[in-house]
Amino acid sequence: MKTNTKILVITGGISNEKELSLISGEDVVRALTDENKNVQVLEITDDKKMILYLNSISFLKRKSKADNSGKTKDFNSLDFSVLQEYHFDVAFLALDGKFGEDGQVQALLDLIDIAYTGSGVMASSIGMNKSKSYEYVSCYGFDVPEYFIVYRHDHNLNE
Fold first, then answer.
1. φ and ψ at 50, to 5 degrees?
2. Contacts of 97 by beta carbon, 8 Å cutoff, 6+ apart
3. Contact present, 5 and 38 (Cβ < 8 Å)
4. What is the value of pTM for the model shown?
5. I need a labelling partner for 150 at 20 to 30 A (CA). Which of 107, 115, 130, 156 fits?
6. Any idea what DSSP says for residue 86?
7. Model pLDDT for residues 105-130, shown as the tens digit of each residue
């Protein structure tokens, strides 16, 4: 990795796994900051907005009463095109669940030509759909355990 690589850590999210993602994001930020990397953080909020922390320290101190004025940029939507002006070299995906592991964020990053960690759009999308994952790998000759699909609406499940 070049010495001045500009890294965007993407964390938070709209799924029920948001808190886990924030913890992962904090760990990644600490590790990259310890390596003296140029790190900024994008937190996706559960109300489908974005907060860009212009330095990693402001993200790590976000829970304290410290003044963060001027150290964040708030966006009222999940329009990733606004990130183009910051010229990130790579995004480190510290996201879990829906709109994190399902290919949606990966597709948005592909559209604005920002490289990212992890799997691409197709693999992420298939991986989130367990029945499709089984079908996909079994058609290529891999052994998969027997399975059956339970649909929520077939059994009056509320969750």
1. -130, 145
2. 13, 15, 16, 17, 18, 21
3. yes
4. 0.84
5. 107
6. G
7. 999 999 999 999 999 999 998 888 88
